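anyone else get weird line breaks when pasting these?? whatever heres mine. first is seq + tokens for prot A
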Amino acid sequence: MGEARRIVVKVGSSSLTTAAGGLDADRVDALVDVLAKIRNAGAARAASAESGAGSRAGGGEREIVLVSSGAIAAGLAPLGLRRRPRDLARQQAAASVGQGLLVARYTASFARYGVRVGQVLLTSDDMSRRAHHRNASRTLDKLLAMGAFPIVNENDTVATDEIRFGDNDRLAALVAHLVHADLLVLLSDIDGVYDGDPSKPGTSRIAEVKGPQDLAGVEIGSAGKAGVGTGGMVTKVEAARIAAAAGIPVVLTSTVHAAEALAGGDTGTYFHPTGKRSADRLLWLQHASTPQGALVLDDGAVDAVVQRRKSLLPAGIASVEGEFSAGDPVELRDAKGRAVARGLVNFDAKEIPRLIGRSTRELARELGAAYEREVVHRDDLVLLHV
């Protein structure tokens, strides 16, 4: 943890705002104090190493990307809202007001350390489309290379229910993968995962999670009572699992212990990596995309896709559901309706009925060479746990 060079830090709304809504300037400044000092200390070490004979330039520099919630919460008080609204339109209005306040507060706070701030707003739709997530990756890399401090948030002002991440914990896990982070730190108002209700005596903090078995039987809490956020421990643990499965270690702790966590101290809950890094677009496809429809497969096609990792051909499709266009994400379901995979489809929904059950060679003879291809190529397909 202490040796991580590129770090994604996520902070929740409850750590930045009051329960009534509105930013708490002291809380923001306290977080920035930690992040800026660690970043500047790393830059100083890198400069010292660069000036030393035979030292590799940049060896000690630490790069940090901040995924910050708080836009909607910051906009509540200015709009006279007592709690986070349930309807999307008022959430978007609060985000529109609050995002400017949030970034302005960060800009002023980081300016105390001579650090520039860059804002990056994302939606799930941005990240599930190849060109868009490549652009996001380039932007974040360039901001870091130019010495700016990237602050990422979901673009709540334009996101609809269909293209929302749902919570910034999951967004942080995906951003960590996108920027090839060495560490993900999830900050909230709770100092780790507990084996029971942390407010009750007799419970203890779970220091390490090496796999799902370490959390078997542990009841994970939902969103807090303040009503300004959307997550809770459930979304944080899920985000930790996503990142760990992609080969990224995760620390889950409270915001007041941020400095200790970033220094490699014994705080919070540490999630060991459980998998290896996969292609960026496949992780986005699995965790950030919203299926626009479904293809129901026969038993042979399910076996080919799941067991033999083959592409989905027209001959293995039994039926089609929903309305979608070529390039959209769709679910692949078995005969019982269970989703077994998700992939990017190569045809519009209206085209598929006449392809069902037929060979690609037959389709090419009748409809042309453009139809001699997979409905979902195996390189654009991820398996789901069923």
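and prot B, same format (seq, then tokens)
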Amino acid sequence: MMPVGLAYPLVAMFAVQVVASLANFAVPVLATEMSSDIGVAATYVGYYSALVYTATMIAGLIAGSFIAGQGAVRTAQLALLSAVAGLLVATLSTPLALGLAAVLIGACYGPVGPAGSHLLARVTPPRWRPLVFSIKQTGVTAGGLLAGVLLPPAALLYGWQTALLLLGAIGLVAAFAVQPLRAGADADRETGRRVSRRDLLASLGLAFGPSLRRITWNSVGFAISQSVLSAFFVVYLVSELDLPLARAGLIFSVVQASGIVGRIAWGYFAERRFSAQQILALLALVIAASFVILPLLSPTTPLWVFLVFAAMLGASVYGWNGVMLAEWAALAPEGRVAEATGGVQFVMFGGSVAAPPIVGLVVAQTGGYTLAFAAVVAVALSNCFMLLTGRRPG
């Protein structure tokens, strides 16, 4: 049975992850509604995602030293406030405002992973880490599910600006709600600690060190498939397959829901039935198969087929994160989980930054998604090969 003392910190970090994920998914889900008001094509969401993940990379790299000085809970609270600010700025409905919103939301998304890993690694026995980290990471897919279910109807009824304002209000509530956890959870903070260039280089050094190097590159491959799907899936369903936004949102919510189930299931099996690397290799293979199938769907495909496919897609593309984060923590030097997470996350999100604008450019030049999806298949198969042929250090 899971240790009782884990419940409060796990629920708190899960809630933080949900709200951060909601903010991250908001613009991609509403891109087709926002584009005419802002004056840019919906496919420009790829550039928006690149800005988000650039800010995520930088904020995540800084997070290790910031958490050491301020504590994991305070870091999470400040991250949520950054997301709230980003959502408010986005309602100004200009390309410049949307770019600034991307930076602010990315500044939220970067630190919440290291903050959660730092806190949960301190209170979780090693045997429970894959499952606990996977449950925490289901907050990402839960946020995506809520984005798919709630934001399109809210935008159609009240306007997309109001939908973003309501989401900002949720972010404020969450930031204040985790305050009672701070006294105990942030007791290990080093008062007066400041972020330094040496700390940033040390985080990157851990990511490329002998124990983490291979899993760092594996993480990049998984991040590419996830960022492409997050940025373009709803746009693809609406613009290429001519599905109504509400139906596309429903399908996207099934992707997210199956990601939740997948993360918990893979987290349970990792280190109990199979090794983490075996689980990740299987998921890479399913991701490749999913991106082969996606271009074969059509406007006449029955809804139930879309939903079954969405379940397979979500369980793989959004199912790997918890097992991966637990693997980072397991391979990190003692007491340096936050720094290692920030360093690996920085490199991983490099794939998230590069992939969406490249896909957007390929789509614009070729007039379709086939070539872009084929590239994702190649990356996933390469990932599977690396995982099956590599050995876990130590």
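btw re prot B: The chain has a mean pLDDT of 85. The chain has one domain: 4-175+195-389.
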